[in-house]
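To assess whether the prediction recovers the assembly geometry, we first specified each molecular entity separately, as shown.
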Amino acid sequence: MQPLIARISAYSDLAADDFASLNNAPVERVQHKAGAKIIAVGDQLTHVFVVSRGWAFRYRTLQDGQRQIVNLMLPGDCFDLQALIDTPADHAVDAITSVHLSRMRRADFLNAIRANGRLATGFWWASVQEESILREHIVRLGRRSGKERLAHLLLELQRRLHMVGLSNGDTIDLPLTRELVADTLGLSPVHVSRSTAELRRLGLIRTSASSIQILQPKKLAELAQFDASYLHSRMRLA
Amino acid sequence: MQPLIARISAYSDLAADDFASLNNAPVERVQHKAGAKIIAVGDQLTHVFVVSRGWAFRYRTLQDGQRQIVNLMLPGDCFDLQALIDTPADHAVDAITSVHLSRMRRADFLNAIRANGRLATGFWWASVQEESILREHIVRLGRRSGKERLAHLLLELQRRLHMVGLSNGDTIDLPLTRELVADTLGLSPVHVSRSTAELRRLGLIRTSASSIQILQPKKLAELAQFDASYLHSRMRLA
DNA sequence: CGATTCATTGATCGAGATCAAAATTGGTGG
DNA sequence: CCACCAATTTTGATCTCGATCAATGAATCG
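The predicted structure of the complete assembly is given in tokenized form:
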């Protein structure tokens, strides 16, 4: 639960004991291996999850086998608050790396946030953030070129990891294959490879085994028309 | 407020008097002319809105002037539940046609849903629906061709209008210019025109002044790989 | 009715897909 | 530690969908 605390409490007035009601509630810890399916389409969702370690992704698969990743889920991200409605999952979630999750039964989660308004606001804020990230994903897919999409995604991931204390400056661990990036950005793996090479050639990023370093954040942001305000990294309690 | 009631109560156990708490709260009615700006980027959101008549759209504009529409807002849609967090708007909302809105101050809205758990669930359900529509929009942009995107959007709009009682069978009023459709689907207006012609030529749709008729829903759905489950038109209360 | 906005059609161009092969990486067991 | 196999990445060549530019044709509205 640490990254969630880091994320929510970094910008709000939530005190440590606001999380007491969460920790008192029966929180169960589960773990999934890299590549494992966490949620399948059609599942009845009974729990609310928080990623505490590792990466996962939410996606839909079309009948013709194409896949589109809807959201990359990093430590500190919660899902599915949608579980509060009793409706079957319309998308699947798979683990990218080994993933540690904290989960809580729907009813327990509801009790926890009912008991603590500030906590409720904290989760609501996380959900507003997530929805805004979805919207920017739409803009990225609809109105940016391949190179721009990639640059934009890298900057977003850098910021999101930074928010939960998982970036060493401009270098971030990216456990993503070209194919995962392609299915995120609506491109082919080949084109992702070429776009990466292009950013490298421009001296904007450096890539190593499974991490990338952003060499020129300003230029990269300019290229991607990246405006971080959609991440709502500052929150003011209402 | 009628379309919202139609939408929420059609599939839930909400009784008419569940809405009493809403109608008791100070609901203000406002109207915007076609083309008017309803929310600007950076605005502090103080109200929660429900569209009661007309169409609006949510969008972001890039620095280079390109526009991407994030969501088309039809009668019965609510926004911005995000207003419950005190953060500036990250996107703009404009009226397409003349638009009638019902709005409520944040605090009044919170009181209303706190007073009535079933009402809260109803709004939560609407918000789950909306988020799911955003996700499918992502899939549409990322993994479908122009023709498929158009077909998919038409089917979605038909269903959504149907849910609030605004479709006459397979014929729907579409107050959208080619440019609005283009900015929704991440295409150029020219290509939207050609794709429309193509669907017409295939005998799948018929178009007149400002409405379209879906002639072969099955074939259109097959072409678009349209699977309506993401619309969650059935809700079961938790 | 003109005038302005919007839709269609034609011609050309380019970003990104696809197909195929080569190069790299990583994991495994001897 | 090295050799081998599988998976991933890169690179090259070609093709296609959709963008762009430009002109014509309809609609809508004072």
